[in-house]
Amino acid sequence: MTPLDATIEPRDGGDPPVVALRITNGSGAPVEVLNPDLGRPSPEMNWPYSLETYRASLLMSYAYLTVSVTDEQGQPVEKQPVETWVTPILNSPVALAPGESLDVPIPLGPFFTLAPGSTYRVSAEYGDPALKISGEGALTVG
User: Fold this and answer.
1) Regarding beta strands 65-70 and 94-96, do their DSSP bridges make them parallel or antiparallel, or are they unpaired?
2) Is the separation of the CB atoms in 29 and 95 below 8 Å?
3) What phi and psi, each to the nearest 5 degrees, are found at residue 31?
4) Buried b vs exposed e over 97-132: b needs ≥16 C-beta within 10 Å?
5) What are the distances in angstroms from CA 57 to CA 5, 29, 80, 98?
6) Could you state, in order of their start, the residue ranges of all structural domains in the chain?
7) What is the predicted pLDDT for the residue at 3?
8) Nearest Cα to 60, choosing from 13, 114, 105, 27?
9) Of all residues in the chain, what percent carry a pLDDT higher than 70?
């Protein structure tokens, strides 16, 4: 059982929509989690998306982040690949003190086609083999 809690929370003004996996240390001791900062795309890449999309794509491609989205009827929304073709830079883990939180931004727009006016259920699992954290939440697309 992990001492961490996780929820999916919509970010304001995201177009395309962005959610955050908020990981909170509910224990009485510090806990180390995988650092979501995997560097920046090199200028030579001509990366067409945001820095958050770059990091989410790397996390997904190395199985540090798994995201699923279901529509109002409970049907899964197909995930579109966004490839970075680079190896991530793994920084030191983030130490969360008791009560501290870490947000892992997840831009949904580049990965999923979402219809305005619809509500979706978003699930995510984050971490390395030593510690996996799962969270769920809802997102209504404006």
Assistant:
1) unpaired
2) no
3) -135, 135
4) eeeeebebbbbbbbbbebeeeeebbbebbbbeeeeb
5) 23, 31, 11, 29
6) 4-140
7) 84
8) 105
9) 97
100 closest CA partner among 7, 36, 23 = 23
Total Cβ atoms within 10 A of residue 17: 22
Tokens encoding 91: 């920084």
Percent of the chain with pLDDT over 90: 78
Diameter of the chain by CA atoms? 45
Report the C-alpha gap between 53 and 47 in whole angstroms.
Answer: 10
Tens digit of each residue's pLDDT (9 = 90 or more) over 53-87: 999 999 999 999 999 999 999 999 999 989 887 87
Separation CA 135–CA 83 (nearest Å): 24
- Looking at residue 56, what is its pLDDT? 95
Say which residue the tokens 């006016």 belong to: 117
If one counts every other C-beta atom within 10 angstroms of the C-beta of residue 10, the result is 18
Please name the helix (run of DSSP H) or strand (run of DSSP E) that holds residue 140, with its range, or none.
strand 131-140
Sites in the chain below the pLDDT cut of 50: none
Question: Would you say domain 4-140 falls under CATH 3.40.50.1380?
Answer: no
Q: What confidence score (pLDDT) does residue 1 get?
A: 58
